Amino acid sequence: MSLAILALDSGGQPKGWMTPETAVCQYARGTVVWSLGQVIFTFRGGIQRCNGERSVIEVASIIACEGEHKHSTWSPVSALPGRDNRLLFSRDRHICAYCGDEFSETELTRDHIVPRSQGGRDTWENCVTACRECNLDKAGRTPEQAGLRLLYVPYRPVKSEKLILANRHILADQMEYLQALARTHKKLMRAA
Fold first, then answer.
1. pLDDT-derived band of residue 144, with 50, 70 and 90 as boundaries?
2. pTM for this predicted structure
3. Closest CA to 76 of 37, 124, 119, 112
4. Where are the beta strands (DSSP E) in the chain?
């Protein structure tokens, strides 16, 4: 994904990433309620007949739009580990859960802690990143059955963390906004 605009609902909750072109359409339709962050794109239109001025739309890195954001690249289904290994590998920082070494994306696999053959489910809490060698050694067994030690505890990222994991070209102000939301969501989850 190239440079993208963080789209929020009018209440400040993240809806997904949108292209600069889609953001310009939101500005032109008048559906942008508020914006944050730096201006990252300036689009210049034609000359207006009535006053001779050129139309200009400046697009901020974070925009809040009216209603549902229909151009979101995030969805609950695509964010599940069984659907997108890249998000899982990013969550685990490309580190094998068994040997602790860091690997490139092409050298990694998704491992089910409790194997599917033993009733394990395809959930964030049951999936970890594993190198090919460790995954082959573990085979269809649990870590305990295979004599392996799990080096970190898998977790289900909150929505704002999933957006961070899904975008490799995130800007500093977007990251700051999403991290603040993630901290707030985690505090609320602990209090519940």
1. very high
2. 0.65
3. 124
4. 5-9, 14-18, 32-47, 54-65, 108-112, 127-131
